[in-house]
Design a protein that fits this description.
heterodimer; A: 354 residues; mainly alpha; ABC transporter involved in vitamin B12 uptake, BtuC; 16 helices; 72% helix; globular; B: 345 residues; transmembrane helix (chain B); transmembrane transporter activity (chain B); transmembrane (chain B); cell membrane (chain B)
């Protein structure tokens, strides 16, 4: 076999037409699973087809959906932000305290978003300027931001918010069971999707995730880009904190505790690689909705939320293990030939013979 | 540059070298911080240290976290992380209580073995998934954290084990002392000494550092990476299992929330103690001092007149301070090595 033949053979999967390639991706699989889960739930779970179910489901996943957008971008650049849920808690406390102090609600909310943005900038500073690993930094700020939130308010809760605003957080788009907040999410999702998938900026994020040295040599300001992403993540988390506070009319230091793990689980389930450089927003949105829908349907079917946690965990493990299993099977099938990897191809260390 | 190349002064005893090593060691800083916290709290309220209860609590409370943090440190040294330790503590604590309720007259040794075995088994699942599927430990143990905790809550339900369900001899382990030192602390220190000796002196222990510093190089050197990484997770799980058994002995009451949030405390203890999250650096001794510092601060804050609500914030500052310090030291050493190279040219 000549060298050209080898090349042709190795590149064969990419010779498929675009629509067939799109059908074979991980993201499509998640979307298909989501649709299946929705259809099966509608057919079998009593009360799942009630519009109220959809409303509650969308309200509850809205903060996760919002924060998953910047989180996707961050993980694509091979970083992580574990402090998002603590920023939600902090923003919630700031909203509550300022409203209690008599500030008009819009100003209090604005201040909370600003605090979130500053918190994100602090993460970004430590990661990009000081040069620390984001996992360690955001484990630290996870404790720090949560500590400030809990320290400011103790175990008390502020529950008095202007009704016009709490009603807005709970309101639906007239004539539909869809909460108003979904309009905002839709706008943000489109902005993020265009940014990530259709602009040079988006390509540069993948480039950073694939190889940050190469990205830097090709003229991308890696540090500044990452800094911006952490700031963005903080701002969106701050906004999610305001929404969370209004939705439950409740500002507490321990609001949204543990949500960071739900968000990361959903993003990874949606096909974003923790190694960076791979993933798409529609997969992530489907991932968040999949976990939310499964939880909602199982709860309605009378299954306890503990089992739902087990299922979430198993889904996450299965989705990552299946990817490497498929990669391993492919190496097996193509034999020695495909082990000679193409440049820029999957950089994951393949299971090597030991 | 001088510190590295300086020949030891003639007649320098090993004692003075030991002194100099102790003064520059990474762990010394946080040990000093720990001592300062204890002194400050004792000055505000002498009962913090000098009442018999105070001294006992000072040793007892961090001992459980110490066990988990030692396991976590071993895993982090191999450039992995174990988020499922808190869930493992919860599961084994409940298993311990259940064994005493369901099997009357079960020997205490058997309960210990069962707890450690269950913990080790759960760790084996983590390790196998991480090592064979070549998936980052962060993702796998995030998944198993949910799964183990979910199994725990589903198994426990609203049930809880009470002190009266467990024999007095077992409960005594959690509170009794030998020569003024709680038995729990002695167990924790023995485990710590064993782990420290293993990591320092045995070939397989050193290989954990090699794997963590540079996985690719370790692989090329032919180190048995899969086996070592699986072993690190098994050790982490088994130590969390041991901590779960001792949790039941110490607190008497076990509900489904046992060990909740311990994963972040354990990672925090290790990071504060100088174990680099990027692998290959650190000692279990440091992680142990980190565990002591975390929980001692927690007890000291109310005595110093600060709401203990601020404890998390202090922990956050400590973690950030520790990693910034590591970074500064690394940069300084890098510069020194470059300067040294220029000199010898």
């Amino acid at each position: 076999m000549t060298a050209t033949e080898v090349a042709v053979r190795t590149y064969k999967p990419h010779a498929r037409p675009a629509w067939r390639r799109a059908l074979l991706t991980r993201e499509t699989a998640i979307v298909v699973i989501l649709v299946l889960v929705v259809v099966v739930s509608l057919a079998t779970v009593p009360n799942f087809d009630s519009p109220l179910t959809a409303t509650y489901l969308l309200r509850d996943v809205a903060p996760i959906l919002l924060i998953a957008l910047p989180m996707t971008l961050i993980i694509v650049t091979e970083e992580i932000d574990l402090s998002v849920a603590s920023i939600v808690g902090l923003a919630s406390v700031v909203t509550g305290l300022l409203t209690q102090a008599g500030l008009p609600f819009p100003l209090a909310a604005l201040a909370a978003v600003l605090v979130g943005t500053l918190a994100g900038a602090f993460n970004g500073f430590l990661v990009t300027v000081v040069g620390l690993p984001s996992l360690a930094v955001t484990i630290g700020t996870l404790a720090l931001f949560r500590g400030i939130a809990v320290g400011l308010l103790g175990t008390t809760a502020i529950t008095d918010f202007p009704e016009s605003w709490t009603d807005l957080a709970k309101a639906n788009i007239p004539g539909t069971p869809i909460p108003v907040v979904m309009i905002l999410f839709a706008i943000l999702a489109v902005v993020f999707a265009v940014l990530l998938h259709f602009t040079p900026y988006g390509r540069s994020l993948y480039a950073i995730g694939l190889n940050k040295d190469a990205a830097a040599f090709s003229g991308i300001d890696v540090a500044r880009t990452k800094f911006q992403l952490f700031v963005l993540s903080g701002a969106v988390s701050g906004f999610a904190g305001v929404y969370f506070t209004l939705l439950y009319s409740n500002a507490r230091g321990d609001n949204a505790m543990g949500m960071e793990l739900q968000i990361i689980a959903a993003v990874l389930l949606g096909g974003v690689s923790i190694f960076g450089g791979r993933g798409a927003l529609h997969g992530v949105i489907a991932g968040v909705l999949l976990i939310g829908t499964l939880g909602s349907a199982l709860r309605l079917a009378g299954i306890s939320s503990d089992i739902i946690n087990v299922i979430t965990g198993l889904l996450l493990i299965a989705s990552v293990v299946s990817t490497s299993l498929l990669a391993w099977l492919q190496t097996r099938r193509f034999g020695a030939l495909s082990r000679r990897r193409r440049p820029g191809d999957d950089r994951r260390p393949q299971p090597a013979p030991q | 540059m001088t510190t590295v190349t300086r020949p030891s002064a003639p007649g320098a005893s090993s004692a003075s070298r030991l002194m100099r090593h102790a003064a520059t060691a990474r762990e010394t800083g946080i040990l000093v911080a720990l001592v300062l916290v204890i002194i400050a709290a004792t000055l505000s309220n002498p009962n913090f240290l000098f009442s018999s209860d105070g001294f006992r609590d000072l040793l007892l409370t961090p001992s459980l976290l110490l066990l988990v943090a030692v396991g976590q440190a071993i895993v982090i040294i191999t450039r992995n992380v174990d988020l499922s330790v808190g869930s493992i503590v919860g599961l084994t604590a409940y298993l311990t209580g259940t064994l005493f309720v369901d099997v009357s007259g079960i020997p205490i040794v058997v309960v210990f073995l069962a707890g450690v075995a269950l913990g080790g088994l759960l760790g084996l699942v983590n390790g196998a998934l991480v090592a064979f599927a070549r998936v980052p430990a962060l993702v796998i143990t995030l998944g198993t954290m949910y799964v183990y905790r979910g199994i725990n809550v589903a198994w426990t339900g609203s049930d809880r084990i009470n002190a009266s369900d467990m024999p007095g001899g077992f409960r005594g382990l959690g509170t009794d002392q030998v020569l003024g030192i709680p038995i729990l602390t002695i167990i924790a220190l023995v485990v710590l000494a064993g782990a420290a000796w293993y990591l320092r002196n045995l070939r397989s222990g050193r290989e954990l550092y090699a794997i963590g510093s540079d996985p690719a190089a370790a692989h090329l050197c032919g180190l048995p990476m899969t086996r070592r990484i699986v072993a690190a997770f098994v050790v982490s799980g088994a130590l969390s299992g041991l901590a779960g058994v001792l949790f039941a002995a110490r607190y008497g009451t076990v509900s489904s929330g046992a060990g909740f949030g311990w994963e972040l405390q354990a990672i925090g203890a290790a990071v504060i103690g100088g174990v680099a999250i990027s692998g290959g650096v650190g000692t279990v001794r440091g992680a142990a001092i980190g565990a002591f510092l975390l929980l001692t601060i927690n007890r000291a804050l109310p005595i110093l007149g600060i709401d203990d609500f601020w404890q998390r914030a202090v922990v956050g500052v400590l973690i950030l301070g520790a990693i910034v310090l590591d970074r500064v030291l690394a940069v300084r050493q890098h510069r020194r090595l470059i300067a040294q190279r220029e000199e010898t040219r």
